[in-house]
Amino acid sequence: METTTQAGSPAQPRAPLSKERVLSAAVALADEGGVDALSMRKIAQALGVVPMALYKHVANKNELLDGMIDVLVGEIDPPAGNTDWKTAIRRRVLSARRMLLRHTWATEVIESRMKARATPTPAVMEYLDSMIGIFRAGGFSVDLVHHAMHVMGSRLLGFSQELFEDSSGREPDPDAMPPEEMAARFPHITELAMAVAHDPDSVVGSGCDDQFEFEFALDLTLDGLERLLRRN
Amino acid sequence: METTTQAGSPAQPRAPLSKERVLSAAVALADEGGVDALSMRKIAQALGVVPMALYKHVANKNELLDGMIDVLVGEIDPPAGNTDWKTAIRRRVLSARRMLLRHTWATEVIESRMKARATPTPAVMEYLDSMIGIFRAGGFSVDLVHHAMHVMGSRLLGFSQELFEDSSGREPDPDAMPPEEMAARFPHITELAMAVAHDPDSVVGSGCDDQFEFEFALDLTLDGLERLLRRN
DNA sequence: AAGGTAGGTGTACGCCGTACACCCGTCAAG
DNA sequence: CTTGACGGGTGTACGGCGTACACCTACCTT
């Protein structure tokens, strides 16, 4: 059994590794067996490769987890044009939910990674940005969108809460984005951040009163329940 | 420096271990350094004891995590009597939030443990039960409470979502509670469960339409936002 | 032909959870 | 007073984990 590369061999012994192949193997492994069953060694084994080979494609396990989150976010349907904000948001959230149900480990990983990172990955940022865009296009003021994002909270995936939290004392982002590119790629996030904190440098800084936002969302919910109650 | 037990020594060399001491040491360690920095070995070291000593007080690390959750739930203020349901719920939720802010690792642990266990620990059950009780006392019908619990969702700690999910294929609960005791200790949960599924045996079984509940909560939120928008 | 580089390999280290055998102080029964 | 059970702390050891580091080997460029 010669397994070394042989020129004319019709069935090549192994496809070449790549970040995508590593990530989808990882996602597949997590789907069956949960995130506890996910180890670099198991992923390598599933790919027929030695564990350290993975490190040529992902820096470490945390980056791998971040990459997996991006894969998941990519599974969420893009925003549907030609509808009012309400159905657009509704569809998007329900699509996100379907993704979360497909990958039961997702919320756990998202939760823990969002706590650790200074900034969400670009894919996540893009998702949030387009979400904000839908609200803005629907006529929401910047302030109201801000509230809305907090209110949606965990239903928007579970991370908007953390997104707005103080980001100091976290793992420093290895390749933090310069503010100009930030503004160009995520216009809505930038707009919101500038309105919230009058300090455009700390783009998603802690210029917002978390406690106020929490109570705002809570009261909105309680009022909704009360209305239902009155209507008996 | 003789550290072995010596009869008349006024300062006894070490307090005797106990489950509470282990748990509070674990909570303290998690508070400073997050849940990743929490290992049986570190806890033991903090208590001046050999790692295996802990296993005389907790069965394994998962049970330790469950115990830690109970400690946290115990920090939530008990329900305030003599008020309407709305302020009672409000106070309770805000108290829970203060606890979560004190222990930033809490949501992560709760999230992962709730996914794994068949039934929440008694302390958690008690918390949920009293929460339901407040709604019921406020005049909510059983059905409406059911909706309400889903709506509050993560704001009620983050676990009611999982509580109502299908509980098959999870770690079997070592000491599952007999239904009678269940009904006696958690009357409100039982009432709700019986109404939802007409099968009183699978007390928090999957007799509820998760998708419906999710959309119900989503729409309640969206309607709330819409009202704010109209009032511009 | 020379040499850089991208990608897979092998070994090794320190951490983890915990199974298992042990040991010792206390206390009840004989 | 002896004995033996037992609750609780100990020591050793195993298998799995993430990953640092040195290597080797094809290939591509010049």
TrEMBL record, chains A, B:
<dbReference type="InterPro" id="IPR050109">
    <property type="entry name" value="HTH-type_TetR-like_transc_reg"/>
</dbReference>
<dbReference type="Pfam" id="PF00440">
    <property type="entry name" value="TetR_N"/>
</dbReference>
<protein>
    <submittedName>
        <fullName>TetR family transcriptional regulator</fullName>
    </submittedName>
</protein>
<dbReference type="InterPro" id="IPR004111">
    <property type="entry name" value="Repressor_TetR_C"/>
</dbReference>
<dbReference type="InterPro" id="IPR036271">
    <property type="entry name" value="Tet_transcr_reg_TetR-rel_C_sf"/>
</dbReference>
<dbReference type="GO" id="GO:0003700">
    <property type="term" value="F:DNA-binding transcription factor activity"/>
</dbReference>
<dbReference type="GO" id="GO:0046677">
    <property type="term" value="P:response to antibiotic"/>
</dbReference>
<dbReference type="InterPro" id="IPR009057">
    <property type="entry name" value="Homeodomain-like_sf"/>
</dbReference>
<keyword id="KW-0805">Transcription regulation</keyword>
<keyword id="KW-0804">Transcription</keyword>
<keyword id="KW-0678">Repressor</keyword>
<feature type="domain" description="HTH tetR-type">
    <location>
        <begin position="16"/>
        <end position="76"/>
    </location>
</feature>
<dbReference type="InterPro" id="IPR003012">
    <property type="entry name" value="Tet_transcr_reg_TetR"/>
</dbReference>
<dbReference type="InterPro" id="IPR001647">
    <property type="entry name" value="HTH_TetR"/>
</dbReference>
<feature type="DNA-binding region" description="H-T-H motif">
    <location>
        <begin position="39"/>
        <end position="58"/>
    </location>
</feature>
<dbReference type="Pfam" id="PF02909">
    <property type="entry name" value="TetR_C_1"/>
</dbReference>
<dbReference type="GO" id="GO:0000976">
    <property type="term" value="F:transcription cis-regulatory region binding"/>
</dbReference>
<dbReference type="GO" id="GO:0045892">
    <property type="term" value="P:negative regulation of DNA-templated transcription"/>
</dbReference>
<keyword id="KW-0238">DNA-binding</keyword>
